[in-house]
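Repro:
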Amino acid sequence: MADQPASPADNSDDPAAELRRYRWMAGGCLAVAAGGWAVSHMGLLPPEGAAGLRAVAEAGMIGGLADWFAVTALFRRPLGLPIPHTALVPRNRDRIADGIAAYIDKEFLEPGMLVEQIRRMDPASRLGRLLADPAARDKLTDLVMGLLPGLLRADQEAAIRQTLITAVSDGLARADLRPVLAQGLRSLMRSETVEPLIAELADRLIDFVHTRRGWLQEVVSGRSRWWMPSAVDKTLANTMTDALLGHLYDLRTPNSPAGQDLRRWLEALPDEVEQGGPLAERLLAAARRLLGPESLGPLVADALGGLRQAVLADMGRPDGRIRDLVSGAIGSAAGQLDDPTLRERINHSVEQTFQGSIPRWREAIRGFITGTLKAQDVDQFTDKLEQRVGRDLQFIRINGTILGAAIGGLLFVLNGWLS
């Protein structure tokens, strides 16, 4: 059977119209009671019937009027009269705002409660089930593939490039890189590549000195006295060259005194860098220049440009591999989440993140609620609150009228029976 359209009475999209409708219903009940009271005085009924109707109508009017006063006094002064303890909502708007914020903070933002909810949710398992679902995986793949062209547009590349360069440069300027450099040097000193590296450098220097032997002889001869024999100058140059070569050979050899001194200096170098000596400052300055905007900018630009062209070209081909890579990565993540240990670590990380962030969130959320409510006009605040709860309050008026009439009829019967 086809669904029937909702009746106008079921349409609650307009809270103000709905409130007016239920006000008319409550007022109608009170009008019925007042009409019954008027009929009881018209002489249209026998005395006993008129007395019973009057008792019922009077009690209904009393109940309806009392509840009308109570409901109206919440939001405004009944009949505009300056009656004490009326217009409670507009007079206590700030207290209500603080109370709402405190209630939400206590009942919904308490850290232990939120963490327990997250623990029951088991986000890692939910994520794993989502990624394992072929339909969900295809939708996520489609979403990623749909986002890539927009992210890789040429006009976006400049913004991404500048953001990366600025982030790296600012990070290098603010970060203390000495521990990183020191740790890198320690790893190098412990590796098996340090001795071949020292040997390679020493061999290069030895070869360089050999090839510059004639130049050294010319320098010594050019600075020697005129009366000094050239044979002496040549012998002196050769002696200096051989001494330098011998020292380089010693540096190359781990067991020689010079080689041992070099290796002890290299072992102490990470500590010197970490403690912030002059050498550490020179190394840091070199690292910042190497990764600064002047050198990093072209590198990032070339990398992003090449990546953008490659990705867009692949996405334009029927046999492109990007979609398979994205789908495979999502499937791999789903498979990894089958591991209970990994799921436990993810859930623990989420819980820790919430525990660390909740204090800041609680204060911000509470301030946002109170600030938003207190910033509203008092009349606007009152109208919105009345529209949200006014329907139920009108039922209080309706129930008060009906219940009062029932009690009036019951008391009339009891009075007659007791009399």
